Amino acid sequence: MTLVARLTHALDSGRSAAPVLLTGDHRGLEARAEADLTPAAVLVAVTDRTRPGVILTQRTETLRNHAGQVAFPGGRIDPGESPVEAALREAQEEVALDPALVAVIGAVDRYRTVTGFTVTPVLAVVPADVPLVASEAEVASVFEVPLDFLLDPANQVEASAEWRGRTRQYYEIRWQDRRIWGATAAMIVNLSRQLAW
Which terms are listed as keywords in the entry (predicted)? Predict the structure, then answer.
């Protein structure tokens, strides 16, 4: 069975599972209408290898928002774009991923961030060792983390921190010297609950 077929089957099988955490600790965001949130999309690009991995980026320290954080390639959805189109465009802009090399499986459940975005993760498969080039303006580095490591609940640690005068709950995943946390980690946790992997 191909990786695309395995992920498609895992996603279809997992959709019947219990509801997942679609938002983090968002007191005050619940009342916000969906129309008031900024739509965004990210590409969850799984590499087609014996031990599949997930492509992630480390954002540059010079960015105004989320500087230095680990993220999926992605960003705002432009007018007239679908989440899939936006995720593919952003991945091409950020890491030079050729959309022709991407086998899209589909969008998974959206995630609402505390910063006012509604993010649609787009699950896809890309060839192993596809050449990627980080956009100097946005991306400090591109790296890959094994999919099974990310999806393992033992590696998904719940934590809390003070933010804008409130205690916020979040997930954190440590991979080598990388700290994956916030919305990216939460979307990984959601995916791990949606995939019967």
Answer: Hydrolase, Magnesium, Manganese, Metal-binding
